[in-house]
Amino acid sequence: MAEIISIRTVNPDNEKVLAITEELSENLYLRFGSDGKNSFQDWQNNNSKFVFVIAEINDEVVGCGAVRPIDENTGEIKRMYSKFPGKKIGKTILLFLEEKAATLGYTDLVLETRLKNESAIQFYQKQGYKIIPNYGKYTDRPEAICLGKSLNQNS
Predict the structure, then answer these.
(1) Residue whose C-alpha is closest to residue 145's, from 123, 117, 116, 113
(2) Distance CA 64, CA 82 (A)
(3) CA–CA separation, 117 and 108 (whole Å)
(4) What is the pLDDT of residue 127?
(5) Per DSSP, what are the bridge partners of residue 110?
(6) Which residues of 108-131 are buried (b: 16+ CB within 10 A; e: fewer)?
(7) Which residues contact 48 (CB under 8 A, 6 or more apart)?
(8) Distance between CA atoms of 61 and 83, rounded to whole angstroms?
């Protein structure tokens, strides 16, 4: 029987959520020497353009992801994480975030990952994201790679 992945919007400070975001931070630190927390400090819970979600299978939190505004039309994907590879958790989270972003009026999504994170780069490219020039604080960061996707295209 296939496991059902459910996605729901939550506050990133929710106690149940902290365990998955800490696991993500530990994973990033072990793999890349940085936990990514400093890229997620301007969260605004009372702003509808900010969306944080968790993925659950049988009431276990197995993944997370977020969108925050870069500008009125562009959202940034942040804190994407899947606890178990190969179960389509990441894809399910990303599709949910893309649909939610479109309903919030975003026309484009962008994201950053590390060049070393080849599996993430391949994952995003399979989901229709294209390599774009590094933006914002990533502009002069040679270890970073940025990707983007227009939400107006049927991909």
Answers:
(1) 113
(2) 7
(3) 22
(4) 96
(5) 76, 148
(6) bbbbbbbeebeebbebbeeebbee
(7) 104
(8) 8
Cβ proximity of 85 and 101 under 8 Å: no
Whether 70 and 101 have beta carbons less than 8 Å apart is answered as no
Counted residue by residue, the chain has a size of: 155
Percentages helix, strand, coil for the chain (3-state, rounded to 5) are 30, 30, 40
Render pLDDT for 36-61 as a digit per residue (tens, 0 to 9): 555 555 655 667 788 989 999 998 99
Strands 130-132 and 108-114: unpaired
Selected from 3.40.190.10, 3.90.1280.10, 3.40.630.30, 3.40.50.10490, the CATH number assigned to the domain covering 6-150 reads 3.40.630.30
Provide the residue ranges of all domains of the chain, joining segments of one domain with +: 6-150
Residue with tokens 């819970």: 45
Cα 55 to Cα 4: distance, rounded to the nearest angstrom:
10
92 phi and psi angles, rounded to 5 deg: -65, -45
pLDDT tens for residues 57-91? Answer: 998 999 999 999 999 999 999 988 899 888 999 99
Provide the whole-model pTM. 0.85
